[in-house]
Write a structure and sequence with these properties.
The protein is an alpha/beta fold and 461 residues long. 32% of the residues lie in helices and 15% in strands. The protein has one domain (37-214, 278-459): Alkaline Phosphatase, subunit A, CATH 3.40.720.10. Helix 2 (20-26) crosses helix 8 (248-271), helix 7 (223-243) runs antiparallel to helix 8 (248-271) and helix 10 packs parallel to helix 11 (329-353). The longest helix has 25 residues, at 329-353.
Length: 461
C-alpha cells in the first residue's frame, strides 16, 4: 500500500479526540500558507463583530429623524425603490425618544440607555448601504462581500492576512452563530486555506452557557499518550518526506493536530468564566436572566480578545423574534435591545478599562436597516438602501456621526458607505490594503472587496 495512504489512515484513527472542530477549522492549506504581514502600520490588532441578525431599525436606534415624527401617517414624499421586499404603507414615526449623551452630544434612542453612556467612544456610520433586500443575500454580503457566490468571510480574510497572535487558540471564533441565511458560509473560508475559517461555539439556538468547542478532550486517552502518538506520527512524517519531498501538505495537516493538542489546555481555560469577579459579571448583565445569555457571549469575546484571537464574532439571534420586526416593532425591538444593551456597554467599558479598546475594533450592526414607512400598522420592512453601523476603538474617531440618510431615513445620502467601503475601512485599520490582500483562485485574484471599496479616511483617528 502507498505509505502516504497508510499514514492518512493512521492519522484518521489517532486524530479522534484532538479537537474535531479545531481540526476542520485550522487545517493547513494544501498549497501553502501566506506569511502574515501588514501593508501599513495598524491601528487595530483584532476585531469583535457584534452581529444583530434580522436588521435593527436605524431610525429607532442611532439615526433620529424629526421630519419622520412630524409627518407620521402621511404618504412618503419620495419614490420607493423599484424592488421592495413587501408592501409598504405611510410614514411611521419612532415610538422611542432620542436624547443627547456625552461630551459629543450625539443622540441615541431610549432603546440603548447603556450603550448611550459610551457614545463618546462610538463612530456612528449613518450612511451604510447595500444592494440586497433579502436576509440571506444581505447577510452574505455583509459577511463575505458577495450576495450571490460562496466567498471567504471577512474574518477569514483577516486571518489569512495577519495570522494569529496565539498559537494555542483558533484565530477566528464565532460565538452562537446563526445557521440560517447563509449559515456556515458567513464564517467559512471558501477557497482560502481552511485554517482561516471560523471555529463555531454553539449556535444561535443554543444557550451560551452550553456554547463550547466540542471534542476538545479525548474521551479516554491522556495527554501523555496523545503526545507519544503525535511524536510517532512525526517520525513517520519525516520518513515520508524523505521518500516524497512533495508531501509538505501533510506536514501542514499534522500541525493542525499539534494545535488541537495544545488547545486541550488553552481552550477550557478561555471558556471558563468562573474566575471572573462579581463586579465583572454584573457589568455584563450575568446577574439578570434577560441579559445573561448575550452577556456571557460578550464576556467570552473579551476573554478571547485578551488571549490574542484575531477575529471574534458574536451573534444576537433567536428562533422567534430576532430583529426582523415586520410587525410588533415596539415589542420586538424592546425585547432585543433589552437583551443586548447592557452587555454591549459592559464589553466596551471592560475593554477600555483593560487598555484593550485602543487596539481592538468593535463593529456593531445587522445585515440592513428598516424602512421609515410602515408595514401593516406597527412594523417596518427591510431596508438595505440606508442604515447604521457603528464602530468603536481600534483607530476610529469616537463621538462622531459620519454620513447621513435623507430626512426620513430611507436612502443613504451623504458620505455614503457601501458594504465594500466598510470592509475596506476595517482592513485598513488592521494594517491591510484591501486592494493588495488577494488570493489566486480559478485563474483570477480575488479579494474581500471584489473590484470595489474605498477607505473612509474621515473616520480615522
Amino acid at each position: 500500500m502507498n505509505p502516504l495512504l497508510q499514514r492518512r489512515q493512521f492519522l484518521g484513527t489517532t486524530a479522534l479526540g484532538f479537537g474535531q472542530l479545531a481540526f476542520h477549522s485550522l487545517l493547513g492549506s494544501e498549497t501553502g500558507v501566506m506569511s502574515p504581514t501588514s501593508h501599513h502600520p495598524a491601528r487595530a490588532k483584532r476585531v469583535i463583530f457584534l452581529f444583530m441578525k434580522g436588521g435593527p431599525s436605524h431610525v429607532d436606534t442611532f439615526d433620529p429623524k424629526p421630519l419622520l415624527d412630524r409627518d407620521h401617517g402621511k404618504e412618503p414624499p419620495f419614490d420607493l425603490p423599484r424592488v421592495t421586499f413587501a408592501k409598504q404603507g405611510n410614514l411611521l414615526k419612532s415610538p422611542w425618544k432620542f436624547r443627547q449623551y456625552g461630551e459629543s452630544g450625539l443622540p441615541v434612542s431610549d432603546l440603548f440607555p447603556n450603550v448611550a453612556q459610551c457614545v463618546d467612544d462610538l463612530c456612528i456610520i449613518r450612511s451604510a448601504h447595500g444592494t440586497n433586500p433579502a436576509h440571506g443575500g444581505a447577510a452574505l454580503k455583509l459577511h463575505t462581500g458577495s450576495d450571490t457566490f460562496v466567498r471567504p468571510s471577512m474574518g477569514s480574510w483577516v486571518v489569512y492576512g495577519l495570522g494569529s497572535e496565539n498559537r494555542n487558540l483558533p484565530s477566528f471564533i464565532t460565538i452562537c452563530p446563526t445557521l440560517a441565511h447563509g449559515g456556515v458560509n458567513n464564517w467559512g473560508s471558501a477557497f482560502l486555506p481552511q485554517r482561516c475559517q471560523g471555529t463555531p461555539m454553539g449556535t444561535a439556538s443554543t444557550p451560551s452557557v452550553n456554547a463550547k468547542v466540542n471534542h476538545i478532550a479525548h474521551p479516554s486517552l491522556g495527554q501523555d499518550v496523545q503526545r507519544r502518538q503525535l511524536d510517532f506520527v512525526q517520525q513517520l512524517n519525516r520518513r515520508s518526506l524523505e521518500e516524497n519531498p512533495h508531501a509538505e501538505a501533510l506536514t501542514a495537516r499534522l500541525e493542525s493536530f499539534e494545535l488541537a493538542y495544545r488547545m486541550q489546555t488553552a481552550m477550557p481555560d478561555a471558556q471558563d468564566i468562573s474566575g471572573e469577579t462579581e463586579a465583572t459579571r454584573k457589568l455584563y448583565g450575568l446577574d439578570n436572566p434577560v441579559t445573561e445569555n448575550f452577556g456571557r457571549q460578550c464576556l467570552l469575546a473579551r476573554r478571547f480578545c485578551e488571549r490574542g484571537v484575531r477575529f471574534i464574532q458574536v451573534t444576537h439571534s433567536d428562533t422567534e423574534v430576532q430583529w426582523d420586526q415586520h410587525s410588533d416593532l415596539y415589542q420586538g425591538h424592546t425585547k432585543n435591545a433589552a437583551e443586548v444593551d447592557k452587555p454591549i456597554a459592559g464589553l466596551l467599558k471592560d475593554l477600555k478599562s483593560r487598555g484593550l479598546l485602543e487596539d481592538t475594533l468593535v463593529v456593531w450592526g445587522g445585515e440592513f436597516g428598516r424602512t421609515p414607512t410602515a408595514q401593516g400598522t406597527n412594523g417596518r420592512d427591510h431596508n438595505p438602501h440606508g442604515f447604521t453601523i457603528w464602530m468603536a476603538g481600534g483607530g476610529v474617531k469616537g463621538g462622531l456621526a459620519y454620513g447621513a440618510t435623507d430626512d426620513y431615513g430611507y436612502y443613504a445620502e451623504r458620505d455614503k458607505m457601501h458594504v465594500h467601503d466598510i470592509h475596506a475601512t476595517i482592513l485598513h485599520l488592521l494594517g491591510l490594503n484591501h486592494e493588495r490582500l488577494t488570493f489566486r483562485h480559478a485563474g483570477r485574484d480575488f479579494r474581500l472587496t471584489d473590484v470595489h471599496g474605498n477607505v473612509a479616511k474621515s473616520i480615522l483617528a
